[in-house]
Amino acid sequence: MIHQKGQKEEGFSLVELVVAIAVIGLLVVGVTSLFITIESTQRKTRLLETATRAGEKKIEELRNNHYNTLETDSVITFTDELPDTLPAPRTATVAVSEPTPGIKRVDVNIAYKDGRVDKEVALSSLIGVIGIGQ
Question: Which of 9, 10, 27, 116 is the 20 to 30 Å CA partner of 57?
Fold first, then answer.
């Protein structure tokens, strides 16, 4: 390429183009990583919410039954009542105890596998002879 004196070159050099492409590439990788992290977090939150709602539903079901139907020191398994959206293997149990006469405590435990990580949701509630909230 022949240059004349006083004439400016227009356009970008090869080095400038390579640097610009590298910066854009880093931005794309960063944004993609952010989206992947957000999606993973939303999935984990959705699973936790599903397990928590299943436990709360079971507690409400037990509260709606009569107090005397809850056998002290018993364990109720309700794995088959869990939503299919919770990944297998999954388990769900309720342990019934009576810390004070007239009040029974129900401890709900739901476990499921999130990828290679074991997750667990534990909920507790008191159920009284004369009412739900006593």
Answer: 116
Residues 59 and 76 sit within 8 Å (Cβ to Cβ): no
Report the predicted TM-score, pTM, of the whole model to 2 decimal places: 0.74
Q: Could you read off the pLDDT of 45-90 as tens digits, one per residue?
A: 999 999 999 999 999 999 888 788 889 999 999 999 999 999 989 9
Helix (H, G, I), strand (E, B) or coil at 50: helix
| Contact by Cβ (8 Å): 105, 98 | yes
Closest CA to 81 of 90, 72, 73: 90
Residue 130 CA to residue 87 CA, distance in Å, equals 38
Number of compact structural domains in the chain: 1
Q: Which domain holds residue 85?
A: 14-128
Tens of pLDDT, residues 1-13: 555 666 666 777 8
| Residue partners of 49: CB distance under 8 A and separation at least 6 | none
Cβ atoms of 113 and 89 closer than 8 Å: yes
